[in-house]
Specification:
By secondary structure, the chain is mostly helical. Helices cover 52% and strands 0% of the residues. It is built from 6 helices and no strands.
Length: 217
């Protein structure tokens, strides 16, 4: 039974990593500026977001897969996954530090109990109604960002969800581009970070850096 449970956890971890890698296929292709050119003559030199020391790091030539619309889709996927990964990594570290919401998530599940579980077990412990609310919120967010005006694969702006809405029109373009590059670099690191946490939780010893690390329970 123990061996079966171990195999199941390993399969779960492998599946999660594959999904994360697929969603961030262009994780090292630099970030686009706020708008792709209307002609979508997109390549690594024109799409923006390259930063030192790697600059246009694309050894697998993912940027050459498909059309210019494909590259724009890669960039949008990378940006979304970067932002989600930053939230996930921060949330993991906050809970690992013993900080969590007070009270109960449901009649028999407390936030305190969830904070002591690994990510997969915590998700399994969430009641079906809670899972439905989370997935429903994600669906609404995706629908909102994908249905605004001209689609980003057709030359429109990249998807964005900001509450409250910020006005960046007064920001110097050079400064704004630097901040976009920083956001992407932080997001790329966060994607590696959250995948490392999940791996270490479900396959002990799989991330040597986290072995015995006081920041990782």
């Amino acid at each position: 039974a123990v061996q079966s449970h171990s195999k199941q956890e390993t399969m779960k971890t492998t599946s999660a990593l594959l999904l994360a890698c697929a969603g961030s296929a262009a994780a090292f292709a630099p970030q686009a500026s706020n708008k792709v050119s209307t002609a979508l003559a997109a390549d690594l030199e024109s799409i923006g977001g390259a930063t030192a020391p790697a600059n246009n790091f694309d050894p697998l030539r993912l940027s050459q897969l498909g059309s210019d619309e494909t590259l724009a889709w890669f960039r949008a996927a990378e940006l979304k996954h970067s932002r989600v990964a930053m939230l996930a990594t921060t949330g993991y570290m906050v809970q690992a530090a013993g900080i969590h919401f007070p009270g109960m998530l449901s009649s028999d599940v407390s936030f305190e109990s969830l904070s002591g579980m690994n990510p997969f077990d915590a998700w399994e412990a969430v009641p079906l109604a809670g899972k439905a609310q989370i997935i429903g919120t994600i669906f609404i967010a995706e629908l909102s960002t994908e249905s605004k005006g001209t689609h980003y694969t057709k030359g429109g702006p990249l998807p964005e969800i900001v509450f409250p809405k910020f006005d960046f029109s007064g920001v110097n373009p050079e400064t704004l581009e630097k901040k976009r590059c920083r956001e992407l670099n932080n997001g790329r690191l966060a994607m590696i970070g959250i995948m490392s946490y999940i791996s270490a939780c479900n396959v002990p010893g799989s991330v040597p850096f986290l072995n015995g690390n006081p920041w990782f329970p």
